[in-house]
């Protein structure tokens, strides 16, 4: 499965676009639409580079979601999980109760796990709470 335009738009809307490197809420150097690999202080990129980085990163997470989820997914569920993995990393998806419940076939209980992932550096962040709610809503939306 591939991430749809709607899934990409969800990621973009929460990551925002920054063409200059910055440190995120927990001090990780970040650029573009939330890219972190190889980012250093003082870096700057073009909008086109940011788009390319986003697509490359999404293509890195898609096989991870495919590997970790063993039940059938709708496009909306897939997009929500790719956004989740993009933001939190596939290791967090792998160790999550969300994944365990999902793979046991309890889609509703899995959806209720999204809001639990609203912290960075031990603090609840309003932006993460909004993102998890948007991912949960997309996950639950009929395809």
CATH class: Mainly Alpha
Distance between the termini: 14 Å
Low-confidence stretches are: none
In one word, what is the shape? globular
Which architecture does the CATH hierarchy give at level 2? Answer: Orthogonal Bundle
Helix content: 55-70%
Describe the 3D structure.
It is a single chain. The chain has one domain: Orthogonal Bundle (Lysozyme), CATH 1.10.530. 56% of the residues lie in helices and 10% in strands. The protein has helices at 5-15, 47-68, 75-88, 90-95, 97-103, 107-111, 126-140, and strands at 18-23, 29-32, 119-120, 123-124. The strands form two sheets. Strands 1-2 form a two-stranded antiparallel ribbon. A two-stranded antiparallel sheet has the order 3-4. Helix 1 (5-15) runs parallel beside helix 3.
Any key phrases for this structure?
Lysozyme, 143 residues, two-stranded antiparallel sheet, mainly alpha, single chain, 7 helices, two-stranded antiparallel ribbon
In short:
The chain has 143 residues and is mainly alpha-helical. The protein is built from seven helices and four strands; from the N terminus they run H-E-E-H-H-H-H-H-E-E-H. It has a single domain, classed as Lysozyme.
Element layout with pairings:
Elements: H1 5-15, E1 18-23, E2 29-32, H2 47-68, H3 75-88, H4 90-95, H5 97-103, H6 107-111, E3 119-120, E4 123-124, H7 126-140
Antiparallel strand pairs: 1-2, 3-4
Helix pairs in contact: 1-3, 2-3, 3-7
């Amino acid at each position: 499965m591939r991430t749809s335009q709607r899934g990409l738009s969800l990621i973009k809307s929460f990551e925002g676009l920054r063409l200059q490197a910055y440190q995120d809420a927990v001090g990780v150097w970040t650029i573009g639409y939330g890219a972190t690999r190889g980012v250093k202080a003082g870096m700057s990129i073009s909008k086109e580079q940011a788009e390319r980085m986003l697509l490359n990163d999404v293509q890195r997470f898609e096989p991870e979601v495919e590997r970790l989820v063993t039940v059938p997914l709708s496009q909306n569920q897939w997009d929500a999980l790719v956004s989740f993995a993009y933001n939190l990393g596939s290791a967090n998806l792998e160790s999550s109760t969300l994944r365990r419940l999902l793979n046991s076939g309890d889609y509703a209980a899995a959806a209720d796990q999204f809001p639990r992932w609203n912290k960075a550096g031990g603090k609840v962040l309003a932006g993460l709470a909004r993102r998890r709610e948007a991912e949960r809503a997309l996950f639950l939306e009929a395809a």
